[in-house]
């Protein structure tokens, strides 16, 4: 299988991390997403890594989904946040660090894009120094994150092209982009050079990847594999089944070629 599979920690935060790691490893997963760097050592004995991390909550309130790089007045504090996070991620062996655009709050898409580029370019030398890739997460503004600016693949790709640096790419969340724009397989094929990590969940509802949701995940898995993608696909669904680990095993099977 050309890619690896992982699970997002927050979706299973009702369980101790070591139990999640043990169960994830037993069903063939290779990682747990969205751990803080200091937590990664706890999953190494299970043969797992942390493919992607995000900034913890900051006292300023910056760096979160709603308040991030699309405002130039945020850039100095964001630089401080990532000056701490990037070296810590590298030391933990985490190759990807999430960034967010922030909410529009009246900004045009072009102004938001220009502002994001200006802020991200300030931290890219650090990403290059520590061999880390910054990824901006694509999220839907229709259901879960109203007014979020990086809510279409095309906008994210334009940002990647403007920055033009191999240390900046996108986190393509299949659930979020199905809600916003659909056309998942064609979009992945056309944008794969800019996509560094993937997340999954059922649509609608962000729950299991089972037969009662609208995405054909085995077909998406085959299409992604055909591009030669060799990174991680992280399962980020909110389980509602009686046995959440059975749901995770089902998701793993859906992506096992």
Q: What distinguishing features does this structure have?
A:
257 residues, alpha/beta, eight-stranded parallel sheet, globular
CA radius of gyration: 17 Å
Distance between the termini: 6 Å
Quantity of strands, as a count: 8
Query: What's the pLDDT, averaged over the residues?
Result: 97
Q: What is the element string, with H for helices and E for strands?
A: EHEEHEHEHEHHEHEH
What class would the helix/strand composition place it in?
Answer: alpha/beta
Proportion in β-strands: 5-15%
In which range does the helix fraction lie? 25-40%
Distinct helical segment count:
8
Largest sheet: 8 strands, parallel
Return residue spans where pLDDT drops below 50 for at least 5 consecutive residues. Answer: none
Approximate shape: globular
Q: For the largest beta sheet, what order do the strands appear in spatially?
A: 2-1-8-7-6-5-4-3
List the helices and strands and how they pair.
Layout: E1 4-8, H1 17-26, E2 31-33, E3 52-53, H2 75-91, E4 96-99, H3 109-129, E5 133-137, H4 153-163, E6 168-173, H5 174-180, H6 184-191, E7 195-200, H7 217-226, E8 232-235, H8 244-254
Parallel strand pairs: 1-2, 1-8, 3-4, 4-5, 5-6, 6-7, 7-8
